[in-house]
Amino acid sequence: MTSRLRLALHLDWRRSLVSWFTLPVAAIAALLIGAGMLLALGANPLTGYRALLEGAFGSVDSLINTAIKAVPIVLVGVGICIAFRANVLNIGGEGQLVMGGLASTATALALPDLPRPLLVPLVLLAGAVGGAIWGAIAGSLKAYFNVNEILSTIMLNIVAVQIMNYLLSGPLVDKSFSGFSFIPQTKRLSPNADLPVLVGGTHLHAGVIVAVLAAVAAYVLLWRTGFGFRLRAVGLSREASDYAGMPVKRTITLALTLSGAMAGLAGAVLVFGSASHRMVTDGTATGFTGSAGFNGIVAALFGGLNPLWTMVSGFVFAGLLVGGNAMQIAVQVPTALIVALNGLLVVFVVSIEYVRRRSRLHLESPREAAGAGSEAERVGAGPSPSTGRIEE
Amino acid sequence: MGTKLLRRSALLALVAVMAIIAAACGNNGTTSGGGGGSPSAPLKVALVAPSATNDLAFTQSMTDALNALKESENLDIAVSDNLFVVDDAASAIRNYASQGYDLVIAHGSQFGGSVEQIAPDFPDVSFAWGTAGDTFGLTNVYAYQAASDQGGYVQGVLAAGLTKSKVIGVVGPIEVGDAKLYVDGFKAGVEATDPSTSVKVNYTGSFSDVGLAAEAARSFVAAKADVMTGSAQMVVGAVGVAKTNEVAWFGTQANQTSLAPSVVVASQVYHWEVVLKQIIDGIKAGTLGGQTYTIDLENGGEVIEYNSDYNLPAEVKAAGDAAIEGIKSGSIQTGVKE
Amino acid sequence: MRQFFTLAVLTATVASGIRLATPFLLASLGETIGQRSGVLNLGVDGIMLLGAFGAYYTALHAENLWLAVLLGTLVGALMGLITAVVSVTMKAEQGISGIGVFLFGLGLSDLLFQKFVGTPLPIDTLPTARVPLLANIPTIGKMLFQANLMVYVAFLLVPAVAFVLNRTTYGTNIKAVGENPAAADSVGVNVARVRYSTIIIGSSLAGLAGATLAIQLGIFQQNLTQGQGFIAVALVYFGAWRPSGVMAGSLLYGMVAAIVLTWKTLGIIPQSASDLAAMAPAVLTVVALVVVARRFRQPAALAKPYERGG
Fold first, then answer.
1. Cβ <8 Å between C125 and B240
2. CA nearest A92 in C: which residue?
């Protein structure tokens, strides 16, 4: 056995160990700082975190709440996987969620009497189409007019919120509400469109199945179809793909469109799986989406841009959010703590990627490090959001 | 892909470990809810609100009411504020209900749809929803609202009496609900006092965007307004502009004198405790819902609280007092009901 | 509509538009510097919020606006240091870490506000600073030279940043690091140090932008910026990574917002259309870019962490 091989074997277990521990270490570091913040606020961290765990995973009810919260995050995350694999950073999730919600709501308002097996898929489809259109706008602006997608998606987010406010206070508002005046919401949408409940007596709805199916479909699309191959190729190297004759512009537009469709689907699930079965606004995007547009991005990256793993990371992230709300109720700290803690967690976990990568590089041979190391690493973690050169 | 698979497994392991810990920590069974507080045990009340408890506006009004009743009614109060994400608020409402709270107050008109769906699942828990007038025909849902047009009318009368430039500015959130009622009442009061006064209204489109409120106020000042008013929690931005430009301010929902003692003339303060007491008494007697309560000038739920430091001319105050009496007796109609 | 075209109203609108543009301009200039060196910072909104809170808190207790501005800037610098560690040393994925910083800034600023302030009391706003001679020019004087000091600072920074980028060695290094960090490294430029400096400067400007927002409005609230930091990032792309372009974008955005506001006040925009009108700045920004449609390149190494030997 050569000495190098022996060295490699010897170091192999240590490398796995470091890799294994980086994620929990980051999480624990963030949670420790969170505990410090809890103490500073006069709350007991142990009670708080126990409430968090119980609220997220501690009972069947908690698990259901977490699963439901995870659905829009996973759906958006799956969409981000698709876009990011094509090297497109889609931060327009919030706007696409809103447009999907509006499209599906309008459909249910227009066709309330369709039988349920028809109406449910129809509203979901409408949601996906609404989001897809919103994504397609950004995509074609990028591909054909050189408008950077970060610019266009941010602007489109703003436009979407205003459209929502306009429609929900005006044309789509529920006029039947008694009392003194209207609320910016639609009327209770047709029961035929309610997402079916999976387990009787709970509020676990079919959105979970939709999310799982979407994730699987995305995985198949990305790794088992020609389109997926082209998409990933464009993401790895736009120039090379162009040189090889691939339709780069169309691929990029489609990537953003599909990503938007996923977010739009999430929007539809938010409306029809919600407790109120209406679409309601308080004037902001976050009031409707709960920041799923951003949380989905985080889940996608924690899932290594793999739709299947995004389901897991989305579930865990949703657990943090649901548990965080339970913690808030238990120890009565401001909800802002949860938001800050989430941000901290994201920063820590993203930072720790470096340690993981370094542990691989340093324990490999110099040749491996120089050649395949960083490129492969970045491929593994997903391409950076270089938005591509625009001089074609 | 080796170490990546390991890392993903680590993620799963983390989840599993957390679940095991959570389960091991034990599941305190939920106590059954409702039944009204017995004389010795406190009544457990939960408040779910869309903005901060100290926003000197919407949510503050309810928080103050709860605190006012805490001792006398023996209340055990829990609060989840800043829940402007409707789904999160719905979760909180459901959580509180399942944890055995006797009364869950959903303080926000946008929460109504959620209450309508959740309340039937917890027939022993009483839900109170505002500001709104619909109990959905459910026996465990109370609704509460404010006839804010009344106080709005009175303050409109006062404002019209005060203004020298004959331009008044109004900053609103979204043109719906309680805010719209207040603004419409205010306009009616100005109109009735001096039709030549111009009232400019700007609905910023958001309950929370303080910047928009401040900018709207600024544009009113540029348009020569010397009196302003506004509704909703973003109004603190407008108050600051009023303060800088020495423009008189009328507040609503809570007493806003402390924000700018030099310019706040008066506030229409919501004393929800007037109806909250009736709701709590109802619960203790076994009625968990089915009624709508309205606060107005007559029952003392709405009070025009003047800023004692503000020099209000006597004849203007007299006009205001006359308006209050007129509305209470019914001789003056604000004319604002839909 | 005729009311709008009076001199008084037009003057006030232009002045208002310039004032509205100022926080965007400051944050956007900062992000431009960072992006020219190859670093994408999506956390600008969160940093602005922390800077705004720092400034508000200082103004509330120390009653000194310049101290407030200073503190806001320092808070920004501190966040810049953290961002730099995460993006440069830890080589984290910049889009995501930026969003993490945003969420952290959003939550922490709100938390500190609720813990240490509670009810939002108004603070003093910036006084008008008249430029000695120029302010007396009829009309133009009122529009341009009677603003608060931060407006002048922001607009003076535009040529200053352009000068640094184009005429100093430091600027050349920044651009080199942003285009081809490996080449820059090979000729002895310390890539990490350059990026650290640009990030810290950029974040300080973001903190300053937040502080400016807070003391222009005279108040603080949860999520004061309402996404303005993201708009500032978007404007960098609009401006093609040039300070002059960024200034044009900020002015466009601010001016349209001011016009919409004035029209609402004057009643030109009816209440029913008010939501649709509110999207005007966003739509017009995109339309403007499409119409101009010039070909521009982004820094080639933007958002790619640099690893020597990689």
1. yes
2. C230
Say if residue B154 is in the same domain as residue B141. Answer: no
The CA distance from C61 to C77, in Å, is 22
- Using an 8 Å CB-CB cutoff, list chain B residues near A169: 174-176
**Residues in A 332-351 with any Cβ partner in C closer than 8 A:** 334, 336-347, 350-351
Residue that has been written with the tokens 């997402």 in this structure: A195
Cβ pair A67, A132 in contact under 8 A: no
| CA–CA dist B207, B175 (Å, integer) | 10
Query: In degrees, to the nearest 5, what angle opens at C-alpha C122 toward C-alphas C121 and C128?
Result: 165
- Best mutation site among A25, A153, A384 for testing chain C: the one with the most C CBs within 10 Å? A384
Tell if the CB–CB gap between C230 and A151 is shorter than 8 Å.
no
Range of the domain at C27: 7-292
Say yes or no: domain A70-317 is CATH 1.10.287: no
Same domain as B216, residue B70: no
**Residue A271: its chain B contacts at CB < 8 A?**
none
Per the CB < 8 Å rule, is C217 touching B237? yes
B153 and B138 in a common domain: no
pLDDT by residue for chain A (392 residues), tens digit each?
556 666 655 556 666 666 566 677 887 888 889 899 888 888 888 888 898 898 888 888 888 889 999 999 999 999 999 998 988 889 999 999 999 999 999 998 888 888 888 888 999 999 999 999 999 999 998 888 878 888 889 999 999 998 998 888 778 777 665 555 556 677 777 776 677 777 776 778 888 999 999 999 999 999 999 889 989 988 888 788 888 888 888 888 999 999 999 999 999 999 888 877 888 877 778 878 888 898 898 888 888 889 999 999 999 989 988 888 888 888 888 878 888 888 888 888 888 876 666 665 554 444 433 433 333 333 333 333 333 332 22
**B-interface mutation test, from C60, C217, C226, most B Cβ less than 10 A away:** C217
Contact by Cβ (8 Å): C173, C18: no
Burial class (CB in 10 A: 0-12, 13-18, 19+), A236: middle
The complex scores an ipTM of: 0.85
Cα–Cα distance, A122 to A195 (Å, whole number): 12
Q: Which domain holds residue B286?
A: 43-146+272-295
State the DSSP code for A197: B
Which of A237, A346, A352 has the most C C-beta neighbours within 10 Å, making it the best mutation to test the interface with C?
Answer: A346
> Hey, which residues 359-378 in chain A have their CB within 8 Å of chain C?
369-370, 373-375
Q: Does residue B337 lie within any of the structural domains?
A: no
Whether a cis peptide bond, with omega within 30° of 0, leads into B131 is yes
Chain B positions touching C110 (Cβ under 8 A) are 82
How many angstroms separate the CA atoms of C264 and C278, rounded?
10
Is residue C299 one of the residues assigned to a domain?
A: no
Tally the domains of chain B.
2
The verdict on a CB contact (< 8 Å) between A385 and C289 is no
Could you tell me if B130 and B204 lie in one domain? Answer: no
Closest residue in chain B to residue C270, using alpha carbons only: B202
* CATH number reported for the structural domain that contains residue B60 in this entry: 3.40.50.2300
> What is the C-alpha separation between B296 and B151, in angstroms, rounded?
8
How far off is chain C from A6, nearest CA to CA, in Å? 25
Answer for the pair A120, A287: CB distance below 8 angstroms, yes or no.
Answer: no
- Residue B316 to residue A40: CA distance in whole angstroms: 50
C200 touches chain A (CB under 8 A): no
Query: Which chain C residues have a beta carbon less than 8 Å from that of B259?
Result: 119-122
What CATH number is given to the structural domain containing C147? 1.10.3470
**A residues 199-218 closer than 8 Å to C (CB):** none
User: Looking at the structure, do residues B173 and B193 belong to the same domain, yes or no?
Assistant: yes
> Does residue B211 sit at the C interface (CB-CB below 8 Å)?
yes
Domain coordinates of chain A in residue numbers?
70-317
